[in-house]
Amino acid sequence: MRRRNEGREVNVNAEFGEATESEKPTSEEYAVAKWLKANVPTKKTKFLNHHVEYFTGTRAVDALLTSKWATGKNPIFTTRLEVTDFLHQMLLHKLFHRAKKIPVSEQELKGKSKKKEAEKSKSGDEKDQASACEGKDTKEKDKEKEKEKKKRKIRLEMHMEQMFLDTADAYVWIYDPMPWYYWLCGALVVFGTIGVCMFPLWPATVRKGVYYLSIAAAAFLVMIIALAVLRVVVFCLVWLLTLSRHHLWLLPNLTEDVGFFASFWPLYKYEYRGPGSESDKSSKSKKKRKKDKVSDDEEEKTPLLTEEPPPAAPVVEESLPKEEEEPKEEIAEAASADKLSESESENSQRSSTDRDFEMVEPGDIEGGDTPPGEHAPHS
Q1: Band of the pLDDT at 231, cuts 50, 70, 90?
Q2: Which positions are tagged coiled coil (predicted)?
Q3: Which domains does the chain have, with CATH numbers?
Q4: What is the distance between the alpha carbons of residues 166 and 62, in angstroms, rounded to a whole number?
Q5: CB–CB of 47/66 below 8 Å?
């Protein structure tokens, strides 16, 4: 069975779907692999929880076409087809293997971002203050992160079809040559252990020199321990005698994680922490900040417990109808007052005549001689 790769053919075993492979790579393949690892650009990523380096197939082919194996006097390959066949043989000899690119989903990215946010939230107010001071830097970093997010992120998985193709597929390096200095260090360790074991056979002068060196090293270690104890004793005495106002450290960097010479410099460190010192002021300012925060929290909580929300809207709604009803009541009271005045006038008239009305003849009205209480006789 033969397969095609853009017009190129590579021999493949038809029965098992795997290419034929020899036992070990040749010296030329090792040399090509070393040259490719140094000249072809690679990227780092995680593959099955391991940090690996990978390259793309097209870049490897392009690089080999410009190498000495393609342009020298006795070229091994001259076309892209021959280069792909040669790289396929290297793949079969386990110098690298083919991997499958899988784009990372947004859910995975969100999960990672949530973990980072949770870690950031634990830091608290310190990071908030630092972020306020470095606002400009964070904006620039956010822009860079947005650009990185726009790029497609991928992860690698093992490809089921192990063959080399002149495409943009990823190929993970298995070949990892050991640097020359590893061999040198290993040889020195071996010869050093052998020399120590042969100490009784050394010359007398050399053995005497090693003896004095060992005594000097032991004395130096004892001196370091004594200095560490002495500096603590001096600090405690000064601290007790001055009631914790004066702090004096001899060789303050002696037990710090610094270099050999930096651990003996400066010779001493003195601090005054009594009333009026900078440390006292800073502690007072911190206490004030804490008290202010507590008072602010209490002011925010107490209105919720003691005060009740004023019924602003209902009062306004109820007051409006009352204002409208007042003119109506005044009008009704005025009308009732008029009625009362009229009724009082009528009552006054009734009280003077004791009658509602009186029948009068026309003659009586004209004559007017008869008194009002007497009737004229009928003719």
Answers
A1: very high
A2: none
A3: 23-111+152-202 (1.10.10.10), 224-278 (no CATH)
A4: 10
A5: no
How far apart are the C-alpha atoms of 242 and 175, rounded to whole Å?
A: 67
The residues pairing with 249 across neighbouring beta strands, listed in sequence order, are 269
H-type helices in 53-179, by residue range?
57-65, 68-71, 80-92, 106-123, 125-133, 135-150
Distance of CA 107 to the CA centre of its chain: 17
3-class state of residue 224 by DSSP: helix
Q: pLDDT digits over 17-31, tens only?
A: 444 445 789 999 999
pLDDT tens column, 258-287: 998 999 999 999 999 888 777 667 777 777
Query: Which one of 257-261, 303-307, 325-329 scores highest in mean pLDDT?
Result: 257-261
Instruction: Quote the tokens at residue 204.
Output: 């007398």
DSSP 8-state assignment for residue 309: -
pTM here is 0.45
Q: From the CA atom positions of the chain, what is the Rg in Å?
A: 54
Q: How far apart are CA 255 and CA 231, in angstroms?
A: 11
- Strand runs (DSSP E) across the chain, as ranges? 2-4, 9-11, 43-46, 51-56, 96-103, 154-158, 170-173, 246-250, 268-272
Q: In this structure, how many other beta carbons lie within 10 angstroms of the beta carbon of residue 85?
A: 17
